[in-house]
Backbone:
């Protein structure tokens, strides 16, 4: 569109000059066209709006709506906890914070506070001054076996690969992470030069295809992994078991999208179809996964090693906990992705109907680790629809230590949710690989917005903690957050998700809700096949 505008403008100017010079005919149309030509040229050279850079003049329609949205925010009410109206409010908050605009609203809450599902945190009459709470809330990640623990921010960039995102988007995110001193997850597509461009802290995600550390047959290559893992900017390594948007589903990189640049980054042959399996080939049992974690920790010279998963069968995660307890090998962190997690392209049924929602998964993982007396050595990271400080507060109260955000960071980049992620035609250049669209995303400006969004959101977390009378993030628990469960009943998270006592899963009798899953969980396999353990199962299952 940008090139078309320039060509059209030049043709108009040349035609006008030709008519005037040779035929002495005054080109009156230029008097009307010239203001639009000047406006279009300004749109192209400005850096604040990707839409205007990619679509001069016509992009003002969308830009006008973006300017109107904060003013219209007061008219949106909470009609659906996961519906469009509430998401538009959150989107407005991200835009405003990323641009350092005023994000206060008049006339109080716009949510229906008597609606079932409404949630809030209780404030304290002995509130703390926000100034007494560190705005840059940080958590150490690294267990007893970790030699290089990482001091992570409470909010970081969730996994998004180069290829799914454009080069400019990756560079802007990394530069924003560098400015704000928080971490940038590479996604499973490997570490590209764009991830290294600004020197921001990286969490290297290792998927089933082992991009960046794979042999020609697709198997894991320890030597390549070691070279990459020892880069100074790589602070943590995350083994991806599954993701919330499409758990249990592999992936395909079509040959046409596997360009020489992407192929070089991922360690594959260009212009060939690459399959990402649904499961890993480096391990096939919980015990083998623990051995793989130990191998990666050694190859990376002691950096934090963790796993990412969306909870499916409860007994399979319990099997992991049994393997941890048996071997003494623990991941340094576990990233829990909810079924509501997003992606640029996922099958409809996987996106809507597979996997455990984040809040249920968080409480379950926290309880399991507590029940096996492992929680004190393992950090939990929550991933999935994090837009605001209260989203972070809710997740931490249920058991998370910190949060990752993908959609929030994309909105800070300028994403307008045009839903073109899987077509390559993203108008803002965030998820496109088309050079003309990618150029429209101004790296420096968007990096500043990413850093702004992070800073303002973490600052709001500190303010909420102060209002609740909580001195530090570690003191936040399930008693602080409440939910309306019916028109006349309110329960705290403590009542909705009652926690397990420490060590309660180490010896029978097990808590009633866990007895069946404890019987099914096996360290030598992930799935329960219905055999070999009938005598251990509750009678109703035999």
Residues:
């Amino acid at each position: 569109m940008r090139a078309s505008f320039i060509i059209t403008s030049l043709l108009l100017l040349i035609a006008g000059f030709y008519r005037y010079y040779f035929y002495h005919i005054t080109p009156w149309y230029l008097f009307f066209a010239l203001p639009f030509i000047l406006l279009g040229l300004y749109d192209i050279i400005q850096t604040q709006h990707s839409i205007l850079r990619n679509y001069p003049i016509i992009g003002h329609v969308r830009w006008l709506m973006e300017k109107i949205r904060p003013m219209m925010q007061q008219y949106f009410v909470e009609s659906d906890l996961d519906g469009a109206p509430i998401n538009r409010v959150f989107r407005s908050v991200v835009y405003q914070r990323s641009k350092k605009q005023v994000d206060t609203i008049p006339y109080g809450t716009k949510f229906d506070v008597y609606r079932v599902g409404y949630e809030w945190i209780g404030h304290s009459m002995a509130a703390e001054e926000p100034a007494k709470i560190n705005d840059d809330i940080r958590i150490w990640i690294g267990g007893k076996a970790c030699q290089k623990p990482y001091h992570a921010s409470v909010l970081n960039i969730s996994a998004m690969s180069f290829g799914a995102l454009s080069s400019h988007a990756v560079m802007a995110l990394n530069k924003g992470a560098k400015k704000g001193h928080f971490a940038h997850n590479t996604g499973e597509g490997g570490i590209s030069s764009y991830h290294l461009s600004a020197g921001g802290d990286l969490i290297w995600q290792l998927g089933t295809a082992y991009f960046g550390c794979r042999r020609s047959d697709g198997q894991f290559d320890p030597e390549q992994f070691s070279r990459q893992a020892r880069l100074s900017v790589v602070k943590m390594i995350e083994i991806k078991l599954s993701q919330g948007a499409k758990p249990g589903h592999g992936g395909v990189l079509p040959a046409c999208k596997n360009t020489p640049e992407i192929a070089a980054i991922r360690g594959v042959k260009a212009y060939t179809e690459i399959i990402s399996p649904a499961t890993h080939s480096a391990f096939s049992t919980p015990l083998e996964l623990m051995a793989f974690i130990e191998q990666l920790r050694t190859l990376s010279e002691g950096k934090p090693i963790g796993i990412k998963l969306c909870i499916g069968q409860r007994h399979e995660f319990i099997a992991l906990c049994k393997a941890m307890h048996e071997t003494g090998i623990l991941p340094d962190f576990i990233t829990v992705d909810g079924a509501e997690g997003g992606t640029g392209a996922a099958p409809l049924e996987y996106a809507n109907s597979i996997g455990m929602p984040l809040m249920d998964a968080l409480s379950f993982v926290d309880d399991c680790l507590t029940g096996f007396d492992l929680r004190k050595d393992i950090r939990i990271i929550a991933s999935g629809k994090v837009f605001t400080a209260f989203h972070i507060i809710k997740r931490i109260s249920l058991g998370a230590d910190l949060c990752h955000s993908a959609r929030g960071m994309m909105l800070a980049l300028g994403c307008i949710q045009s839903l073109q992620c899987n077509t390559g035609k993203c108008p803002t250049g965030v998820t496109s690989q088309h050079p003309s669209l990618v150029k429209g995303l101004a790296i420096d400006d968007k990096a500043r917005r990413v850093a702004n969004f992070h800073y303002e959101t973490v600052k709001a977390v500190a303010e909420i903690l102060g209002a609740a009378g909580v001195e530090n993030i570690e003191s936040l628990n399930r008693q602080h957050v409440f939910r309306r469960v019916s028109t006349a009943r309110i329960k705290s998270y403590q009542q909705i998700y009652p926690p397990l006592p420490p060590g309660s899963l180490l010896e029978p009798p097990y808590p009633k809700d866990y007895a069946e899953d404890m019987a099914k969980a096996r360290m030598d396999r992930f799935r329960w096949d219905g055999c070999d353990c009938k005598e251990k199962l509750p009678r109703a299952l035999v």
